[in-house]
Amino acid sequence: MPTILGQNQYGKAENRVVRITRDGDTHHIKDLNVSVALSGDMDDVHYSGSNANVLPTDTTKNTVYAFAKEHGIESAEQFGIHLARHFVTSQEPIEVARIRIEEYAWERIATSDGNSKFIGADEVKHSFVRKGQETRTTQITFDGEKWEVISGLKDLTVMNSTNSEFWGYVKDRYTTLKEAYDRILATDVSARWRYNWTGDEQRMPNWEKSYEQARKHMLQAFAETYSLSLQQTLYQMGSRIINSRSEIDEIRFSLPNNHHFLVDLEPFGLENDTADGAVYFAADRPYGLIEATVLRDGVEPKIPVDMTNL
Ligand SMILES: O=c1[nH]c(=O)c2[nH]c(=O)[nH]c2[nH]1
Description:
Layout: E1 15-23, E2 26-40, H1 43-47, H2 57-71, H3 76-90, E3 94-103, E4 106-110, E5 118-119, E6 123-130, E7 135-142, E8 147-160, E9 185-195, H4 207-224, H5 230-244, E10 248-257, E11 260-262, E12 278-282, E13 288-295
Antiparallel strand pairs: 1-2, 1-12, 2-3, 4-6, 5-6, 6-8, 7-8, 8-9, 9-10, 10-13, 11-12
Helix pairs in contact: 2-3, 4-5
The structure holds uric acid (URC).
């Protein structure tokens, strides 16, 4: 039976583009997931393998990053319109461009003090938390005598768009990483903390308040730590909780290092450094994974090492 080609489209899907604009030391994030699908006169590539009409998907990816740098991202709609128009008007064979964009919403992390580092006295200028996507968790164990309550959260996504460095590390023959003096630090916090409550009804913690406060202290420590490594930030987050919440004795973190790479736009004559309007590729894997327990001095660690990601 003869066959014919039906509907077809192609392009680069899920280009993760992050653009940071700097208004003095107040930063603004645009965080998009952009998928390009092009269609038009593409019979030949399917029938004969001739690529004469094919703009590479790699080029569509580069266009997304270059447009983010050159034209900015005012809104997802404006950005998508600009890209779609470009593909259809600049390439004869392309008749239809479909640009799908997901935009991830970020809120500024609120802080407790009115230090001048902060906007409106209570928000950090370069620290953000992804809107409402975390999951709260708890595990209660009772053997008829002893209680153990381990609570926590996962998927609390946070980002500092500056105040993070990483340098001075070991270098061997396989090391290619460049030292960073101003990088994005982003992670999805998974944390489990253990309460020291022993079952006395009179001394039961206010669980709601405790969760809210642990979360708050963790976010504030993330925002306020000038970070030399994610390990150092982790320790600050843990110790802030232990020092401010007497009902919590131990906390274990699992923190992926959500790498953001400055895109090389040199080939397109665009300078892209960490100054205003920097455009990053937000990689999803592989990622560094930094895990540690922070304990009140003198207590026994009891949170299982592999529990953090449950
Ligand atoms: O904060 C970091 N800690 C590391 O251990 C590490 N390793 C790496 O490649 N980048 C980073 N960043």
